[in-house]
């Protein structure tokens, strides 16, 4: 088959959303299929870029329209935080204007503007250039697979199907769109966004989503067959890591969180409360809680409010290799999620990285009964789900950190179904059957 993957996020871009379509391109091409990938142009100077093999498939990096660069310049000039915003060289009116715009931006950002998940999004500026470029290739694809977010990839896929450039369209979802649990959308355009989503997705031949609950919701809303295609993990990523321990050989017990922080949704407060309470009766706690990733600096006021600054380290986003080394070399992995998020159907890619690290997981915010991720952690005996119960976390600190009671480890055999190669090949078999049936 000739397969086109439309993935705005793709290596070397260092996001979890890049790794999902990369695994498809890698393993589908290894199965003998002709794979093309359409994606954004990337920043070669980004120090966090992924270092992955890009052979066996053809990547088309497509520039957005001029509107993208105009929007980016406006953000840099008026919205991006700056230490010089109160410069005496600026007039009071300009300072007021920038503060007003900045506050408005912060409010809209909490609703999803600029998140790549909600409308409007900067990916809109990529739709026309991408469609025109792919049409100009004078090539037709048996199937186009577009992955959300952002929604721009789905729009391009729908256009290509309508033009006859692609025969079948599979719309993949890593995250929910209009029913997103993190970003509720801008109120005055939310109704339009629902209509836009419905009209667009009625053209898809098949949906895929990261969890059974998510896939079921798509099927119920759009009456179109929906597959469960988890994120998974590629064990070869661990084999290629630097074997040098990333942490010093000292007496500290390290709890590591890697990934983005969303205030109110991924909330470490129960852990912080447990540490604060524990310190009232035992000051000799040799522990470091390390947060590394996007938006983690928003935790600083929260850490200060619990008075545990000396026990917490806040680090900026690192390379994926260093993040994986931290996961490998720590003592406990911290997983944060809100109970009932997306009806328990949120299965982030970080979960699979954690599972394959071999280290135990402390899940805060979710129970093992009402959460899909909690069920996976519990069923594999990969760790403990505390919900928001800080008392249980205190007990775990005593048993697992002070008394150093050993925890069970997940066996590699249990993880075989969660490898990216297994998932990609299972997905491919379904695509092949769908294309064969529709072509009869």
What is the CATH topology classification name of the largest domain?
Rossmann fold
Mean pLDDT: 88
- Tell me the CATH superfamily of the largest domain: Glycogen Phosphorylase B
Q: What order do the helices and strands follow? A: EHEEHHHEHEHEHEHEHEHEHEHEHEHHH
Describe the structure.
The chain has 440 residues and is an alpha/beta fold. It folds into 2 domains: 201 residues, Glycogen Phosphorylase B (Rossmann fold), CATH 3.40.50.2000; 180 residues, Glycogen Phosphorylase B (Rossmann fold, 3-Layer(aba) Sandwich), CATH 3.40.50.2000. It has 16 helices and 13 strands. The chain has a 7-stranded parallel beta sheet with strand order 3-2-1-4-5-6-7, sandwiched between helices. The longest helix is centred in the N-terminal third of the chain and has 20 residues.
Topology, element by element:
Blueprint: E1 2-6, H1 16-30, E2 34-40, E3 58-62, H2 66-79, H3 92-111, H4 124-135, E4 141-148, H5 152-162, E5 166-173, H6 187-201, E6 206-209, H7 212-222, E7 226-228, H8 236-239, E8 253-258, H9 269-279, E9 287-292, H10 300-306, E10 312-315, H11 320-329, E11 332-336, H12 349-357, E12 361-364, H13 372-379, E13 383-387, H14 390-402, H15 412-415, H16 420-438
Parallel strand pairs: 1-2, 1-4, 2-3, 4-5, 5-6, 6-7, 8-9, 8-11, 9-10, 11-12, 12-13
Helix pairs in contact: 1-16, 4-5, 9-14
């Amino acid at each position: 088959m000739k397969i086109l993957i439309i993935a705005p996020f793709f290596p070397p871009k260092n996001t979890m959303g890049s790794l999902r379509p990369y695994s498809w391109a890698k393993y589908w091409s290894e199965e003998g299929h002709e794979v093309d990938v359409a994606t954004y142009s990337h920043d070669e100077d980004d120090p966090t870029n992924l270092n992955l093999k890009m052979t066996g498939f053809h990547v088309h990096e497509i520039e957005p329209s001029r509107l993208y660069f105009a929007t980016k310049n406006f953000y840099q000039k008026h919205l991006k935080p700056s230490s010089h915003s109160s410069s005496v060289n600026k007039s009071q009116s300009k300072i007021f204007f920038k503060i007003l715009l900045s506050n408005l931006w912060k409010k809209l950002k909490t609703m999803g503007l600029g998140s790549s998940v909600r409308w409007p999004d900067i990916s809109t500026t990529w739709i026309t250039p991408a469609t025109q470029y792919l049409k100009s290739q004078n090539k037709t694809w048996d199937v186009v697979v577009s992955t959300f977010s952002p929604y721009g990839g789905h729009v391009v896929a729908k256009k290509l199907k309508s033009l006859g450039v692609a025969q079948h369209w599979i719309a993949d979802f890593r995250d929910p769109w209009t029913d997103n649990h993190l970003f509720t959308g801008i109120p005055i355009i939310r109704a339009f966004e629902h209509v836009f989503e419905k009209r667009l997705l009625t053209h898809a031949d098949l949906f895929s989503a990261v969890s059974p609950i998510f896939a079921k919701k798509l099927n119920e809303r759009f009456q179109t067959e929906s597959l469960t295609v988890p994120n998974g993990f590629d064990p070869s990523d661990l084999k290629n890591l630097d074997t040098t321990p990333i942490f010093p050989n000292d007496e500290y017990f390290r709890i590591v969180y890697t990934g983005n922080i969303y205030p109110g949704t991924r909330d470490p407060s129960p852990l912080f409360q447990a540490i604060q309470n524990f310190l009232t009766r035992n000051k000799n706690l040799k522990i470091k809680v390390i947060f590394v990733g996007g938006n983690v600096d928003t935790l600083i006021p929260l850490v200060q409010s619990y008075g545990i600054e000396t026990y917490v380290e806040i680090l900026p986003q690192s390379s994926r290799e260093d993040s994986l080394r931290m996961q490998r070399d720590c003592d406990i992995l911290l997983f944060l999620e809100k109970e009932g998020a997306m009806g328990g159907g949120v299965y982030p890619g970080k979960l699979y990285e954690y599972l394959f690290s071999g280290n135990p997981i402390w899940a805060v915010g979710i129970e093992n009964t009402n959460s899909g991720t909690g069920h996976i952690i519990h069923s594999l005996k990969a760790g403990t789900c505390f919900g928001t119960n800080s008392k249980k976390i205190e007990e775990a600190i005593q048993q697992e950190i002070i008394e150093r009671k050993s925890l069970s480890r997940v066996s590699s055999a249990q993880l075989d179904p969660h490898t990216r190669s297994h998932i990609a090949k299972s997905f491919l078999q379904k695509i092949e059957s769908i294309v064969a049936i529709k072509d009869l």
